[in-house]
Amino acid sequence: MYKYWKIGKKIVVMSLYSDFMYPINAVIGNITSFVYTLINLLLVWIIFNAGGVEFIAGYRIQDFIFVFVLSQLVYSFYYLVMADNVMRTIKQINDGNLDVLLCKPVRSIFLVMFQRTNVRNLFNVIVLFAMIPIMVIYFGMIVTISDWISIVFVLIFSFLIIFFMYWVSVFCNFFWFNFNALFMFLNESRDVGKYPRQIYPKSFEWILVYVCPMLMIVNPVYKILDGSFFINDILLMIVLLIVFGSLMFLVWGYGLKRYNSAN
After folding, report:
1. What is the DSSP letter of 59?
2. In this structure, how many other beta carbons lie within 10 angstroms of the beta carbon of residue 17?
């Protein structure tokens, strides 16, 4: 375990040097992300005010904003830990340049998944964390301790299910050259979980819960807010983690046998 910690620490330090070698790029990137968040919050405000409604699908504007910020927080962790590694690994698999990461002394899957971190995105994570208590106080939201525990569980689940699904999409490139369809689908559909599932057709909802659970990313927070989050929701989330976690390791194991080195 110490070897992993030591390697991880060096990866973070090297990423820090790399990200801030060009400080203007890091600053502009963080400003862009912050502006994107503000634009989406403004969009939610416009939707409610233009329609002159207080509720949409049974939820108030503060519920939409709260879930949106939590969703942004989860995806900020994705960009912090995963995004660069996902894109880099897809290219390495297709180009046959994965060899150096398949060496010991640690498990190769660790080296593949954690080649670097996007340290500059840590600023967005801190800002979004700070926005959560501000929102709760400003909107006068009543969130109990048990609600917070459930929310933390949903956030951890959301990051893990994103982690598993994206790496499954990456490892599919072992079987089909330059296969980006699943990866692009995950990118393009990541906003669906920001809105209540009641607004989606039942068939669409079924696919995005049980087949490709993008609608399970942060979205259960809506059920926590309206008091309909129960043990069956927790069991479903645990089952989804087991299924997609197992699928990830299965695709990695069989895919590695099909890897063609460029050397």
Report:
1. B
2. 10
SS3 56: strand
Pick from 188, 230, 228, 177: nearest CA to 212? 188
User: What contacts 251, CB < 8 A, 6 or more positions away?
Assistant: 168, 171, 172, 174
- Give the tens place of pLDDT for each residue, 176-196: 888 888 888 888 888 888 888
Residues contacting residue 82 through CB under 8 Å, at least 6 positions apart: 113, 162, 163, 166
Q: What is the dihedral of CA 148, 56, 62, 141, to 10 degrees?
A: -50
Residue 93 CA neighbour count, 13 Å, CB half: 28
Tens of pLDDT, residue by residue over 73-91, are 999 999 888 888 898 888 8
Tokens in use for 38?
Answer: 């503000």
Task: Give the Å distances, CA to CA, from 201 to 7, 105, 196, 206.
Answer: 47, 50, 12, 9
Look up the pTM and report it: 0.88
CA distance 243 to 263: 35
How far is it, in rounded angstroms, from Cα 94 to Cα 185? 19
